[in-house]
Design brief:
The chain is α+β, with helices and mostly antiparallel strands. The chain has 2 domains: about 110 residues, Uridine Diphospho-n-acetylenolpyruvylglucosamine Reductase, domain 3 (2-Layer Sandwich), CATH 3.30.465.10; about 110 residues, CO dehydrogenase flavoprotein, C-terminal domain (Enolase-like, domain 1). The protein has 9 helices and 11 strands. Strands 1-2-7-3-4 form a 5-stranded antiparallel sheet. A hairpin with a 6-residue loop joins strand 10 and strand 11. The longest helix has 24 residues.
């Protein structure tokens, strides 16, 4: 924001030496990632591998120089609608742990993103950790996106996860779109259409169309709304296919 001259501040507070904000640990079926955990460290962290969608999203963030300095909490609190980590947090129903001098509260990802670069964090509060649920069972995950060049902001993209029951039917589905609105967006209707089914290619195509059907994507110099809608449906279908293949493979 500073580099793009979009904002300026009277004071900057450096949190780099607050080591408590950089922890990564498991806690009763949840991966708790400190807000100051570096993106590059998550990619290589064995504990973080419990949430594959998170670790797979990291390499898509900008360039390695950005990931070396960028933090998980910084990206999520920045709330860029084209950002990978906000979309992943939404897809996985992550909880944001927010602290102030008055105490700590938790906010679900669905209630956290208020608009472009805007969250429900109050001026006297700080995001201190993100709590990602750890899926178990026959699960598969995928993240897919389209950008003009490697490292550019995504024009459209998706993060998804599926869980299958013993018969191979979809027990749980999560689909979150990025670059398709003022915030990351959950494709609730598409998720509901998949649950209880044993989807084939035609079903995935229908679910992908359902995921983007009622959206109003942004229009800018990079892409039209029609382009984002068309390509968005394609990446949803492709990601769902990959996630299902992984889940069916064990």
């Amino acid at each position: 924001m500073l580099a793009l001259r979009l904002t300026r501040f009277e004071h900057l507070v450096d949190l780099n030496h607050v080591s408590e904000l950089s922890s990564v640990e498991r806690d009763n079926g949840t991966l708790v990632v400190g807000a100051m955990a570096r993106q590059c460290s998550i990619e290589r962290n064995e504990v973080a591998q419990a949430v594959p969608l998170l670790t797979r999203a990291i390499p898509l963030i900008g360039h390695f120089q950005i990931r070396n300095r960028g933090t998980v909490g910084g990206s999520i609190a920045h709330a860029d609608p084209a950002g990978e980590l906000p979309a992943i947090a939404l897809a996985l129903d992550a909880e944001m742990e927010i602290a102030s001098s008055g105490g700590t509260r938790r906010v679900e990802a669905r209630d956290f993103f208020a608009g472009t670069w805007t969250t429900t964090i109050e001026p006297d509060e700080l995001l201190v950790a993100i709590r990602f649920p750890v899926w178990s069972g026959r699960c598969g995950f995928a993240i897919d996106e389209v950008a003009r060049r490697m490292g550019d902001f995504a024009l459209t993209g998706v993060g998804c996860g599926v869980e299958l029951d013993d018969a191979g039917a979809v027990r749980r589905a999560a689909i979150s779109l990025l670059g398709m609105g003022p915030t990351p967006l959950r494709a609730d209707a598409a998720e509901a259409a998949l649950v209880g089914t044993t989807p084939v290619a035609a079903d995935l195509s229908a679910a992908a169309e359902l995921a983007v059907r009622d959206l109003d994507p942004p229009v800018d110099v990079h892409a039209s709304a029609a382009y984002r809608t068309s390509v968005g449906a394609h990446v949803v279908e492709r990601a769902l296919s990959s996630a299902l293949e992984e889940a069916r493979g064990g």
